[in-house]
TrEMBL record, chain A:
Belongs to the RRP4 family. This is S1 motif domain-containing protein. GO terms for cellular component: cytoplasmic exosome (RNase complex); nuclear exosome (RNase complex). The keyword Repeat does not apply.
UniProtKB/TrEMBL annotation, chain B:
GO terms for biological process: nuclear mRNA surveillance; poly(A)-dependent snoRNA 3'-end processing; rRNA catabolic process; rRNA processing; U4 snRNA 3'-end processing. GO terms for cellular component: cytoplasmic exosome (RNase complex); nuclear exosome (RNase complex); nucleolus. It is found in: Cytoplasm; Nucleus. Its main location: cytoplasm. GO terms for molecular function: RNA binding. It comes from Smittium simulii. It comes from the Eukaryota. Residues 48-177, 181-249 form the Exoribonuclease phosphorolytic domain. Transmembrane segments: none annotated. Pfam families: RNase_PH, RNase_PH_C. This is Uncharacterized protein.
Amino acid sequence: MSELDNGNALSFSTIVTPSTLITQDAAFMKGHGTFVEKEKIYSSVSGTVDRINKLISVKSLKQRFVGEIGDTIVGRVTKLSQKRWMVDINSRQDAVLLLSSVNLPGGVQRRKSESDELQMRKFFKEGDLVFAEVQSLFGDGALSLHTRSVEYGKLRNGVMIKVNPLLVVRSRSHLHSLPCQVDVVLGVNGYIFIGKKVEKDKLEDISELLEMYSDTNDEIDELTRSNIARVYNSILILDRMLCRINDTTINCAFELGLPYQTSQLTNSEIADEIAVQVRIKIAST
Amino acid sequence: MFSSRAFDNRLVNVPEQSIPPFLEEPKSIKDSVINNSRLDGRDQVTPRLLFIKTGLVDKAHGSAYLEQGKIKISCAVYGPRPVVKAGAVISATTGNLECEFSFSSFSSSWRTVKQRDTEEKEISQILTQALGPSICLHMFPKSSIDVYVTVIESDGRLATIAAAIKCATIALVDASIDMFDVVTCVSASLFNNSWVIDCTQAEENEEDSSILLSYMVSSQEITNVIQTGKTSIELSQNGLNLCVDVGSKIYQAMCQYLSKSL
């Protein structure tokens, strides 16, 4: 059994493998990535030891996204069940979107009828992209989502990209309008949606079923399409280089990529160059 | 000999008498093993050298590639993710572990088509039994962890299974799945009265009995033991103890790699 310290002086960034003894001191509490046996704390994953006051946890780069109440999430509907949709959010279990948690046409206070239940596919069907917020947790750890607000709901007119969830930091707002007429929705679970800019005044009109849950995309002109592709490649660059992803860094990467053609941004040499410059720029601001 | 007919071009002209070339007597593998002079130069208790590399399969959450002598194995781990397998029991308190083991058709000295189905299923069960106790399944209710092992080249049936278990453990650690411990696995074969560790296919063909032991070193728990053949209790215990010792050394090598690979 390999032991790290006496338990008194724990060093940061010590690398551990599963079943390494971290400490025998009963004063510490166990966090993520550890397990306790006979009052000793062992690590259960491969990673670095992180100590915050009395909490010991082991952090590794590859951990699955674990949602918390209040997280804004982008997900894809996988299954329809009795009065609920199952949504894939890149986590251990699919999240649950209850029929009672979505806005139905006809007003917020409308009672759910049987016909609603039978027509669930008219609202969300398999493969649709949903922008939602975590309302609560089920007993087994599954997330319960809701779209009871004007900015949440079905996403259209764009493309989804999957990144490492650790790079999207939880912040106050997750829907960003970039100067290039492109909207970016940052899901904390690592799913990011890039789409055509949504006009603010259209958000007010939530009474029409066709408006809210329509499946047809609008007409998107060539310049917007090209910008969406650029933003997509910029986010790919940030993901590859493990840079934090927020609107500042995306804008930065986008601007630094303007001299190149969109297709050139996928070239690994150019991507590395841009990533290094983004890092420098962010560090200096 | 000399005939009036013209030479027939289809006939090869050979001498009247032919003598076979002088061949060295082939060494009996069993003898060489017992005399502690194995074909590859190892002694009886040394396993083959390990080569491990993680992260080769991009799409999987964790992956590992392992080479031990001629054995080459690749493993991909997905999870924890929602249960994919149809008909699997979804428990609200623990997660599922599904192992799938498969030989490539070119992995052994004869090409196999689909004859290995039952054997692959059996080995998948062995994998599940060996790895199950080491994973913190209570932390992943209603989720499943899927382990897919592919043997690219095999050399010794039990040795290949042992290598597969080691490869799968490393892939699980690479996927950052919470585990109680790293599982090592050792195979040993009995020749007369001595146990020999990690036998190649040629050596395994002449064995009297064999053991496959999966062991968690830190908690000193054996997760799976398979013994074939007939031995006395004493010999059997010797074999198990020897496997445990060798397993601890392999465990150190695996942990060393894991901490360096971060």
